[in-house]
């Protein structure tokens, strides 16, 4: 089993929602050096406050990870041994600026793969997205589910996955891919391009109607963000994951209507729900199968939706109460 202890580790997109929780998790492994690259398109440096308190020598570079020469310079300077690649232009951006989203996302993956091929570091753990599958053709959606991307973002994630696997097969480099379903938890972006959970919480706290696109019966598989961060570390540790894609999912689907009601119950809120037209590229059904992760890394979700939502609501309630944007990212 491999260990991150004592190693020089880099996280691209590490000031974002998932990335910052992964940085917190890596700190627990006592790395020798910890480096974060983020262009702060959605991420925020304050998302790293907890990690910096625990690991004061953490280094942060404000940098677009698609810049090959800049990445080569940082990885060389920091003597990086392992890269966790989370840098991405998110799905909503692809609806307004598809060309930039696709180009940026594929370029970023290709850059980290090429630097791996050229020997600048040893191991890449690449983050995919369940959006690669599109809407469920069968349940649960395992890793053999057809790739049917609905949006340019999803297509860029499929392309990036194929790039990473092609480098693994052609050049024998050390790569594993995790494909998380719908992350939720503290620090999820609550401003531009916000996710459904912070939007619902924010509107309910302000006493505003919650807007749901479509009929609200579309489902998602929600997985607590710290479970995903832990899975990423365990995928690094297990050599049997190399050259493979592993779903990280709860295995349960929840409609957006039921999600909103669960949040209202925690908040003791009675705000109305308004239904609007479906958004372009919105998948209808997601429910992941994580049997491969269960077999290879012993993955088993431990945080229930109820407990995860309670912690998430408490975090946003506190953040909104102080009148700031908080640490969303």
Would you give an account of this structure?
This protein has 329 residues and is of the alpha/beta class. It has a domain of 227 residues: NAD(P)-binding Rossmann-like Domain (Rossmann fold), CATH 3.40.50.720. Strands 3-2-1-4-5-6-11 form a seven-stranded parallel β-sheet, sandwiched between helices. Helix 7 crosses helix 11 and helix 9 packs across helix 11. The chain is globular, with a radius of gyration of 19 Å. The two termini are 32 Å apart. The C terminus is likely disordered.
Task: Sum up the structure in keywords.
40% helix; disordered C terminus; two-stranded parallel sheet; Rossmann fold; 13 strands; alpha/beta; 329 residues; seven-stranded parallel sheet
Helix/strand layout:
Blueprint: E1 8-12, H1 17-27, E2 33-38, H2 49-54, E3 59-62, H3 68-77, E4 82-85, H4 91-96, H5 98-117, E5 123-127, H6 152-171, E6 174-180, E7 182-184, H7 196-206, E8 210-213, E9 219-220, E10 222-224, H8 225-237, E11 245-248, E12 254-255, H9 256-267, E13 273-276, H10 291-297, H11 305-321
Parallel strand pairs: 1-2, 1-4, 2-3, 4-5, 5-6, 6-11, 7-10, 8-13
Antiparallel strand pairs: 9-12
């Amino acid at each position: 089993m491999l260990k991150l202890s004592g190693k020089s580790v880099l996280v691209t997109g590490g000031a974002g929602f998932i990335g910052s929780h992964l940085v917190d998790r890596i700190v627990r492994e006592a790395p020798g050096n910890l480096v974060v690259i983020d262009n702060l398109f959605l991420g925020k440096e304050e998302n790293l406050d907890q990690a910096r308190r625990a690991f004061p020598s953490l280094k942060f570079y404000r940098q677009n990870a698609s810049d090959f020469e800049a990445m080569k310079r940082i990885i060389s300077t920091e003597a990086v041994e392992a890269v966790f690649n989370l840098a991405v232009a998110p799905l909503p951006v692809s609806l307004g600026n598809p060309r930039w989203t696709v180009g940026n996302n594929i370029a970023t993956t290709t850059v980290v793969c090429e630097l791996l091929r050229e020997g600048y570091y040893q191991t890449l753990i690449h983050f995919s997205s369940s959006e690669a599958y599109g809407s469920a053709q069968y349940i649960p959606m395992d890793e053999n589910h057809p790739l049917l991307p609905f949006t340019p973002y999803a297509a860029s994630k499929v392309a990036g996955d194929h790039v990473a696997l092609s480098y693994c097969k052609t050049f024998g480099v050390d790569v594993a891919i995790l494909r998380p379903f719908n992350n939720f938890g503290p620090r999820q972006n609550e401003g531009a391009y916000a996710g459904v959970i912070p939007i619902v919480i924010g509107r309910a706290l302000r006493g505003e109607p919650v807007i749901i696109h479509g009929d609200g019966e579309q489902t998602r598989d929600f997985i607590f963000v710290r479970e995903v961060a832990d899975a990423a570390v365990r995928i690094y540790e297990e050599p049997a994951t190399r050259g493979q894609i592993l779903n990280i999912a709860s295995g349960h689907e929840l409609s957006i209507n039921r999600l909103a009601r669960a949040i209202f119950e925690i908040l003791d809120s009675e705000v109305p729900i308004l239904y609007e037209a479906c958004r372009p590229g919105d998948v209808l059904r997601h429910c992941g199968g994580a049997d491969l992760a269960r077999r290879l890394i012993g993955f088993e979700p431990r945080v229930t939706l109820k407990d995860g939502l309670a912690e998430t609501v408490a975090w946003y309630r506190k953040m909104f109460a102080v009148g700031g944007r908080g640490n969303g990212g």
